[in-house]
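Table S7 (text form). Paired inputs.
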Amino acid sequence: MYSVEKTKGISFIKSFDYILFITVLTLSAIGLVVLYSATLSFENGDSMVLKQGLALAIGIVMALVISLVDYKDFKIIGIVFYVISVVLLVYVKFRGVGAETWGSNSWMQIPVFGSFQPSEIAKITFIVVISTFLERIKEGQGGKNIAKFLIYSAIPIGLVILQNDFGMSMVFIFVFFVMLFICGLPYKYMLGAFIAAIPCGVFTWIFLLNDKRRDRIRFFFNPEDDQSNAGFQVLRSIRAIGSGQIFGKKLFQGIQTQRGTVPVKESDFIFTVIGEELGFIGSAIVVIIIFFLLLRCVYIAKNSRDLYGSFLVTGLTAMMGFNFVENIGMNIGIFPITGLPLPFVSQGGSAMITNYIAIGIILSVSIRRKRSIFNSSQ
């Protein structure tokens, strides 16, 4: 028994994906420093950084623990957490908070921890569950599995749309279509899903989106028309990033970000802080780290030992990738403001923990992508 356990431990250490883990830790460390700079002018800035550090520590521990679990076990565990996340989505629809601050009642208050967004964890359970059905479909077990895939996808997507959370809805929909594409389902299904999304989009625009979120989309095309809200945020962000030029104004010395000219600089517009204080060089380094992280995840998905692992990593990579691209895009004015944070960088405990849970699952797939001693001894 001792030799078997020792062999497992040695094999786990040898098979651990240090490249992925160190890349994520590097991005998170940069995020903490930038967050500290962004909150220097806040009265509760130290408290925000401390909470972010705590969430980071919890996330790292969870990622390491999850990486120890064989990802195939998530097929069973995932269903349980999927049901829990759906229940929480229903709860925040009727009892949630956040409409006054963030524009949608997508949060719930938890003692000590603070605010928590159930849709963050729902993204993970959504991907874990539909990956099971996609594996079966890819193996030729269509029919009822296609129906289950659509039903299990529609429930969380519909609940998030009903919360008026435009940004989070886009994440779910993007992941859904990416996984459809990767699965290689007949184009008639993809076309049908796209056609069905058109009336859903019209319905969402008319009945579900509030004026604030509609304005964000309208003024994306012409931000100069709105100098008081959404357009103001974009213009300020673009000017601040542009003022950083090549080398930036140095850390903690950004003129516009330190004076509070840029709104929500600790979360939605934290890339503005990077652009102004670290300049083009610093921004490019952050983007390169993000690109390398996503590229590593794509490599893991491609080299997974089975279809389920490949679908899992693909979905989680699409989830993080959409957040990265959308957040940076809205900071530089090429995408509308959606309120999506920059993964591993923006302030937000639930988002940080969720992203590390995703990394833990990806690590689990990476560790077991080859039938090593670690796998055979289980």
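Next pair, protein 2 of 2.
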Amino acid sequence: MTPARDAVLREMAEVLWEESPGHHGGALSKILVAAGEGGSRVIDYRISSYEPRAHVALHQHEAKEQIYHFLQGEGLLTLGERRVVVRKDSYVFIPPGVPHALHNTGLANLVFLVITAPVVP
């Protein structure tokens, strides 16, 4: 039997904002649960806040799935060749290999949750 793991309870205020590589102009995230740390084996869970004009460059993940769940603001999401407007209550599932980018095209911060997990064969 696998040994029990401890649950982790934290406050978001304990976590610093950071700007990851490829993110520009105030595209900040708080990594709340990191894969391999903080009690998770595979899940990366973060909240992101992009200032107006902030963006993440076009990129893709070969072995990861992602979900973006938008909480406030509005922006333009690129998914392959498509561009779609996202705003509060929009969410998207991004499978591995799909090129994607995100720009805050609104007047206020674009705030969203990001859940990332590796593809299980």
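The chain has one domain: 17-118.
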